[in-house]
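does this look right to u?? nicotinamide-adenine-dinucleotide version
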Amino acid sequence: MGAGIAQVAALGGYETRLHDPVPKALEAANDRLHRALAKGATKGLWSEEAADLAGARVGAAASIGDLAECGLVIEAAPEDLELKREILAACSGAAPPDAVIVSNTSSLPMDELAEAVERPERFLGMHWFNPPEWTPGVEVIPAATTGPEVVERVVAFLRDIGKRPAVVGSRPGFVANRIQMALFLEALQCVEEGVASAQEVDEVVRSCFGFRLPFFGPFQIADMAGLDVYSSVLGTLRDGLGERFETPNALRELVEQGRMGTKSGAGFLEYSDEERERLLLERDRRYAALNELLERLPPVEAGQDGGET
Ligand SMILES: NC(=O)c1ccc[n+]([C@@H]2O[C@H](COP(=O)([O-])OP(=O)(O)OC[C@H]3O[C@@H](n4cnc5c(N)ncnc54)[C@H](O)[C@@H]3O)[C@@H](O)[C@H]2O)c1
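got this back:
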């Protein structure tokens, strides 16, 4: 993750230093990053000039002491609370007092990490997704001690390097892993119950409701489907599969208030007639473009070599 994040920062115009306490690992990551920049240019992912400029901005930092001029330090060491606390303490001691200190933890509680940081108001979580070079979304997770201007600085930095940050709370799994794991558990249960094979579940997820996900989140999708429809479907699921599908009060109340989604002008979100029309038109344009892309680049089926196209 660290080398991928460094690549995005360097391509985004930032002087970047990589550090790893194992000299061979540091050298390997630095070499891999420079090779990836050159290879990306030969494949047309970015220009030769962009690769050269980014390559010139990245270098190896032999020790944490070499971080003395960094304005932002991103820790991406193995997911171990004590190890991360040690590294964050050392980085915050070495970096300038106003440098922002960040952890790329996938799961550890922000407040327990913040305790290890000198001046913890400048610490927060920044959860990237694999592969960091390409996945646009990054969760930004303030600790209880994080200053609001630090959140703003980190959000601005991420936007500047082309990412799409979302500020979320420090609860287990934050937002992305919580939802991703709920989907995964249900998918696995479908296979275990013999409802469908793993391949069929993958096809349903990516080609049915997953098709919409690059453009719409669950609340917009529910509003477009109709909250009364969602409520009825949940009723059937609850009867057949148990209490975990009980219709939540928040949904029941919206339906009782007549807020059925786009068709009634309001659901979880509000829609004027004009906005609804624009939304549906824009939706169709995006789905048509996505279908064209999927024809050119169909899903990579398991067992196919999709790595080097
Ligand atoms: N792999 C993912 O998909 C993913 C996604 C999001 C977040 N993360 C998080 O990113 C972090 C790193 O994950 P990864 O998959 O890149 O792990 P990794 O094991 O591939 O890389 C960890 C790197 O940290 C280095 N390291 C070990 N001790 C160190 C120290 N004391 N100081 C500095 N570096 C040290 C290792 O040499 C290695 O290069 C973890 O917190 C992980 O939870 C991973």
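Residues 1-2, 20-22, 25, 76-79, 83, 87, 104-106, 127-130 surround nicotinamide-adenine-dinucleotide (CB under 6 Å). idk if thats expected tbh
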